[in-house]
């Protein structure tokens, strides 16, 4: 499938612009890791972009991501793309994260949401944001309380990357598309 087809699917099922921006952010981070690891950037980008396309309609487990997985299968997406998307849900015991793609999606998902939250409270948004600032915000449990800090740390560990390096890597990926995310300094 093409990125245009992926984005059309996202737009078909998701009206909440913040959720669309989240998927764009995760796509950027997963694509950046694909480049770093020498993997298929289009496939990895597709996984990042589509991972939550069904969430607005079916937010409750296990409907998300199973409803979306069925739609992806009907539309002819590759089995490994569908599996990676299913594996980002901790509550699906039959979908453990085994491939580097699975682990990368999981490692980037919550972190991209948290980085976005950190950027939104800064006048310079993503500009100048670094792992030290993000780690400091992680300690404030009332900040972006819905983000599970343990998912962020577990994701980096499972991927085999240093947490600070992972945070900085994802920040740079998001900075590359900051206008699309609405995260440019005012």
What do these coordinates show?
The protein is mostly helical and 186 residues long. It is globular. It has one domain: Hypothetical protein af1432. It has helices at 3-13, 17-37, 41-50, 63-74, 79-87, 100-120, 131-138, 149-159, 163-175, 178-181. The termini are far apart. α2 runs antiparallel to α3 (41-50).
Summarize the structure.
With 186 residues, the chain is mainly α.
The gyration radius over C-alpha positions equals 15 Å
For the sheet with most strands, the description reads: none
The amount of helix comes to 55-70%
Q: Could you give the distance between the termini?
A: 36 Å
Average pLDDT, to the nearest integer? 97
Stretches with pLDDT under 50, minimum 5 residues: none
User: Which band does the percent of strand residues land in?
Assistant: under 5%
Number of β-strand runs: 0
* The CATH topology: Hypothetical protein af1432
Q: Which CATH class?
A: Mainly Alpha
Which CATH architecture?
Orthogonal Bundle
- Secondary-structure element order, as H and E? HHHHHHHHHH
Query: Any idea what the shape is?
Result: globular
How many discrete structural domains? Answer: 1
Helix-strand makeup class? mainly alpha
With helices defined by DSSP (H or I, 4 residues minimum), what is the helix count?
10
């Amino acid at each position: 499938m093409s990125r245009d087809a992926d984005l059309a699917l996202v737009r078909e099922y998701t009206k909440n612009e913040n959720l669309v921006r989240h998927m764009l952010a995760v796509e950027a981070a997963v694509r950046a890791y694909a480049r770093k690891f020498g993997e298929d950037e289009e496939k990895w980008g597709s996984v990042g972009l589509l991972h939550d396309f069904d969430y607005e309609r079916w937010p409750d487990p296990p409907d998300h991501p199973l409803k979306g997985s069925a739609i992806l299968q009907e539309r002819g997406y590759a089995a490994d793309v569908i599996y990676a998307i299913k594996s980002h849900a901790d509550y699906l015991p039959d979908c453990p994260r085994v491939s580097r793609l699975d682990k990368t999606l999981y490692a980037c998902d919550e972190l991209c949401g948290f980085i976005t939250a950190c950027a939104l409270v800064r006048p310079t948004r993503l500009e100048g944001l670094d792992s030290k600032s993000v780690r400091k915000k992680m300690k404030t449990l009332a900040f972006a309380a819905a983000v599970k800090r343990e998912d962020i740390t577990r994701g980096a560990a499972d991927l085999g990357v240093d947490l600070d390096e992972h945070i900085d890597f994802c920040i740079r990926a998001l900075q590359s598309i900051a206008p699309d995310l609405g995260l440019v300094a005012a």
